[in-house]
Amino acid sequence: MEYLELPPSAPILIESTRSIGYTLEAAIADIIDNSISAESNKIEIEYFPKSCPYIAILDDGRGMPKEKLTEAMRYGSSDPNLFREKNDMGRFGLGMKMSSLSQCRCLTVISKQNSEIFARQWDLDYIKQVEKWSLKCLDNNEINDFPLIDKLKKQTSGTLVLWYELDKVFIDGIDDSVMTSKMLTVSDHLSLVFHRFLKGGDAENKVNIYMNGVEIKGSDPFFQTKSRFTMAEERIEIPEYNSVVIVQPYTLPHHLKLSQQDINKYGLRNMQGFYIYRNKRLLKWGTWFRLARFDELSKLARVRIDIPNTLDELWTLDVKKSSAMPPEIVKIRLKQIINKIVDSSKRVYTFRGRKEKQDGIVHIWNILETREGLKYKINQNHPLYEKLLEMIDNDAKKVFHEYVYNIAEHFPVGQIQIDFSQEKKIIKDNIEDEFENIKNNILQILLKIANTKEEREKIVEKLITSEPFCNYKDQMLNFMGEYHNEET
Questions:
Q1: Which of 3, 181, 463, 488 is 20 to 30 A from 196 in CA distance terms?
Q2: How far apart are the first and last CA of the chain?
Q3: pLDDT (tens digit, 9 = 90+) per residue, 178-220?
Q4: Cα angle vertex 403, ends 401, 405, to 5°?
Q5: Which domains does the chain have, with CATH numbers?
Q6: H/E element, 237
Q7: Of the candidates 309, 302, 269, 308, which has an alpha carbon nearest to the alpha carbon of residue 285?
């Protein structure tokens, strides 16, 4: 039997792999993975959109000696099936090359370790010319004019990744505003993907990331300072891999408690679901893996899932680290968790709404279920409604009834539903002073028109079982005591 060696054509393979589907933000995140694996504490991203545009990423990690740098530039520099260190963020040995060259035609990597600096470069135009896997080895004189090189030289160790000829960034020509806009998207992406490594995160290896000198701060998708745990952390054992998947459900606060900036930044409905982390780096988010459907009432439900790098194959992790699918053993347990966490999200909304069951409270609005659907009616048995009718003559009563009827009939249900689905913040007037308004504008008037102490007590007794007075039972009783003391 005869065997023929057929090495892939360098220019054809490299050009083909450029179309694997990396976005600019995913490509830069891949480079930062390497920096974190190298135990970097500071990562600087610099971009320049002028006549000779570039993107530079400098870290202060361990750096690489000459042989390791050369090997790191090889396509497929590591076996995905071999054992890797616990905190290793890579897998296929393709990320740095494929992510970089998906965005540029010239990739230069300069690394420093033990006071020695080495540089390697993939130049696609040169490879196309020579039709070989020809890696350039640059000497120190050739790298002196590169951006951030002076900073690298002053560091004890570190690595500098440089992208030139940004043909995928500037598809329609060089434009400052285009690059600035894209890099803002990159900043938001890194803020989310690496939020557990950034200030306030829970990763052991804290990292500071800067873009053109501005620090990127972490964006916590769980609002942990405001969210609440409705379920305890779950640990799913994977015995054949000697590994554990850790699941932590969260229920976000009602969107009225969030700032409009938070709502705009994260969204709610489209960001519900599972958040998959590998070594505390966010891989995939905003999906239920078809185990549940996206729903308006479940949009406060988010589930953090932590997987180790030993389960890459089981979760079918792709090269871009943007796709992962839970194995069947995990799916079964997640399905059980989903029902509980979604119910918790729904309770946040139904708690704030009108309870369907009898709860002993006289509500301002009644919800009537008819064959045609729901109707919202103002409750004419509310104590304030009844008291007002007692205070006005018959002609005024007719006008008042007609006005209340029109309020109910023209209640803007449709517009409220649209605003709610678009997560617009609906504000209430100074809710913190609501009792003061009740006391000054309603309570004192009703107490003054009552003739006896017994009448006043009956009024208050009736009000404290009605909206909104039921929310201020203690304050109302205290005020009653003070009112009677002043009288005597």
A1: 181
A2: 115
A3: 888 999 999 999 999 999 999 888 888 899 999 999 999 999 8
A4: 70
A5: 10-216 (3.30.565.10), 234-352 (3.30.230)
A6: strand 234-238
A7: 302
